[in-house]
From TrEMBL:
Its EC number is 2.5.1.157. It holds the Pfam family Ribo_biogen_C. S-adenosyl-L-methionine binds at T17, L65, L86, T105. Residues 40-163 form the 16S/18S rRNA aminocarboxypropyltransferase Tsr3 C-terminal domain. This is 16S rRNA aminocarboxypropyltransferase. Keywords: Cytoplasm, Ribosome biogenesis, rRNA processing, S-adenosyl-L-methionine, Transferase. It comes from Natrarchaeobius chitinivorans.
Length: 167
């Protein structure tokens, strides 16, 4: 699967995972929303969770938005595509380590690839990051379980188990 990123450029360039993905030819960055190809848009405001069924739609593209968490509002996700929310995953990056749902762009793309049946591609995507393998280890069980789900409603049911454990 191809990884594409709409890049707003409002984060520290030295810590930007999207820029590092571009540097290592793991993702294509776009600075204009009009240029972003149609695909599965990772959107935390989406009504449906990402599931393996989304791969069956024949979309070979995953799209992420790279922006500061402070500006990640629903209006920022106006890209064309099939919008899906990532289920419960825990960050491994140094800034948000251990915090659920506070993923970097690289973590979000890797999580999506794993759920969509491409765990090897997810591991490859995270190779440029010291904490990349840690992300996959921390989330090994949920990623496996999400990947076994038939559709979005099953993913949400699995997510509910993890959210209940968090409380």
């Amino acid at each position: 699967m191809e990884c594409h990123v709409y890049y707003e450029g409002d984060d520290d360039p030295d810590k930007c995972t999207a820029r590092r993905l571009e540097k290592f030819d793991e993702a294509i960055l776009y600075r204009s929303m009009d240029q972003v190809p149609y695909g599965i848009v990772l959107n935390p405001h989406a009504e449906r969770a990402l599931s393996p069924a989304d791969r069956e739609d024949g979309l070979g593209t995953v799209v992420a938005l790279d922006c500061s968490w402070e500006s990640a509002e629903a209006a920022s996700f106006r890209m064309n595509g099939v919008h899906r929310a990532l289920p419960f995953l825990v960050a491994a990056n140094p800034v948000n380590f251990g915090r659920p749902f506070r993923l970097t762009t690289a973590e979000a793309l890797a999580g999506a690839l794993s759920i969509l049946g491409e765990p090897d591609r997810a591991a490859e995507l995270l190779e440029p990051f010291r904490w990349g393998e840690t992300f996959l280890e921390l989330n090994a069980e949920p990623l496996r379980r999400y990947g076994e789900c038939a559709d979005s409603s099953e993913v949400v049911a699995v997510q509910d188990d993890y959210l209940a454990d968090e409380e």
